[in-house]
Amino acid sequence: MFPQRLDAPQAFGIAQAMMDGFNRHYRLFRSESARAKHRFETADWHGQQRAQRERIEFYDLRVKECTRRLEKEFAAGGLPMAVWQQVKLHYIGLLVGHFQPELAETFFNSVTTRILHRTHFHNDFIFVRPAMSTEYIENDDPGARPTYRAYYPAQQTLAGALRQMVEDFGLQRAFEDLPRDLAAVQQAIAAQGILERQRTNFQIQVLSSLFFRNKGAYLVAKLINGYAELPLVLPLLHGPRGGLVIDAALFGEDDLQALFSFARAYFMVDMEIPSGYVHFLRSLMPRKPRAEIYTALGLAKQGKTLFYRDFLHHLRFSSDQFRIAPGIKGMVMLVFDLPSFPYVFKLIKDHFPPQKETTREQVKAKYQLVKQHDRVGRMADTLEYSLVAFPRERFGDALIAEIEKFAPSQLEISDRDGDGRCEVIIRHLYIERRMLPLNLYLQEALEAGPQDERAQAQLARSVVEYGNAIKDLVAANIFPGDMLWKNFGVTRHGKVVFYDYDEIEYLTDCNFREVPKPRNEEDEMSGEIWYPVGPRDVFPQSFAPFLLGHPAVREVFMQHHADLLEPAFWQAHQQRIRAGHVHDVFPYERERRFAWNAEAELPAH
């Protein structure tokens, strides 16, 4: 019930303490993101990767700090609910004029649910819906940096505008040949056809901060000519002679979707007003959910908040049933989905078959490793939730029986809210973008037969992509462990992505060995392994029987990726990684690169 008076003496103090906690969090988050520029300028690649990993932990640390302060100063957990209603209203007042109100609301939710031990997102004491608009937020101080800058080439020629755009970022490392690079950018823009006739409104809007990830920095912009708009991204790299280069020019929504893929590490971007960046990016990628954009910017908790709001909205306006997800069932994870919703829900089973020597905590640690690692476009990001409530009527009896059989500890069916609605409550789960399992995608092509040219092209493309995915993971120091086709998925853009993490290891922790030659005829005829095998031993020559049973698949694989069956391939990458080399894996193809960079290191896929 809405409080009629704000008369609780401690309510404002609690609200202010929570706002202090959020402001400290975002100040540290932004400071770490801003330092990415210096790490890029000085080629501190290991520092960049370390900062990307450590920044993920910032949010939970600040929530714990704030929770401890509220308990120590206000004994917050023992306060009546009427006080918490007033706390929320005071907090809303503090959001007026704030530059990150949506993030501050999520921080309030995190702290409040931790203190009140609430088990559901729905209650009167958190922000189920946003209270503050994020439209048109801008810092009006004279010295403040705007969300984006506008350049008008008609006044200074396109070449001059492009040069000014780059120089305004103030990079403290010289370009190898900036006029050469900008001439190539101008030529690439001309090839897009957007400038065939210059209209009255001709401008380039550029986000004011660069986007840093691994060894690259990305300038993100939008070309506007009359009614036409075209996304533009310029990747900046360190060139072979030590100076900076513009490596390529990326255009259009598909290029942006690849750059901001859910299978890549989060960007580091110095943003005073993150909602402004999200609004700008959505104008470039209208099909990409705001939740995924916030997550790609490193604001994963806000991504989770928006995802859950989208999910509740979808449940309200749909009526289909949750089901066991199509495909081969896993031994470790139970997977279900809602056909009308493009995500899958994964929970860890209570028990695993003997060949899976792992525990629930070890599986969770693997998923956390993926969260913190460079995913190089080949490992799907996951959203981790606890105590998620679903409407019971949306669950078929077969799915309930499946959960009761394999993960009973994770299931509760009750009316915990006391509102008369029975709910299915899952104690812990991961949510992940739905992809078509690669084994099903391959089977479609094989069933169509060799006379179907499209099917044969699909088969060849998916086998080549599968090998490329493994090689990208290897470059990032990841050994997938279980390399079966069923553990990979195909995205809507045809990219092959790995999504089964319970057996992944760091490549450098594995021991890649040759299969020993038989000592005698008895060894050769034996159906059992007769040689000793250590817990981290891997025999690449043994992959073929499991992966290449079909002749058509084998032919394509051996043509493009036969090296994956040789220990020397894996050992060579181990040596490079141990020597400190950071491999380049970028979100665009080799042929997109400007000619003078083409011989520099970049995978061919």
Descriptive account of the structure:
It catalyses: L-seryl-[isocitrate dehydrogenase] + ATP = O-phospho-L-seryl-[isocitrate dehydrogenase] + ADP + H(+). Keywords: ATP-binding, Cytoplasm, Glyoxylate bypass, Hydrolase, Kinase, Nucleotide-binding, Protein phosphatase, Serine/threonine-protein kinase, Transferase, Tricarboxylic acid cycle. It is found in: Cytoplasm. The active site is at residue 381. This is Isocitrate dehydrogenase kinase/phosphatase. The chain is 41% helix and 15% strand. Strands 1, 2, 3, 4, 5, 6 and 7 form a seven-stranded antiparallel sheet that branches. Helix 7 (153-167) packs across helix 8. It has helices at 11-34, 36-41, 45-55, 58-74, 81-95, 101-116, 153-167, 178-191, 252-259, 274-284, 290-296, 300-316, 360-372, 397-406, 438-448, 453-475, 521-525, 544-547, 551-561, 567-578, and strands at residues 148-151, 202-207, 211-213, 216-225, 228-238, 244-246, 250-251, 323-324, 333-337, 343-348, 382-391, 411-414, 423-433, 436-437, 478-479, 488-490, 496-498, 505-506, 511-512, 537-538. The radius of gyration is 26 Å and the shape is globular. It has 20 helices and 20 strands. The longest helix has 24 residues, at 11-34. The protein has 605 residues and is of the alpha+beta class. The protein has four domains: 9-120; 148-299, no CATH class; 318-434, Phosphorylase Kinase, domain 1; 438-565.
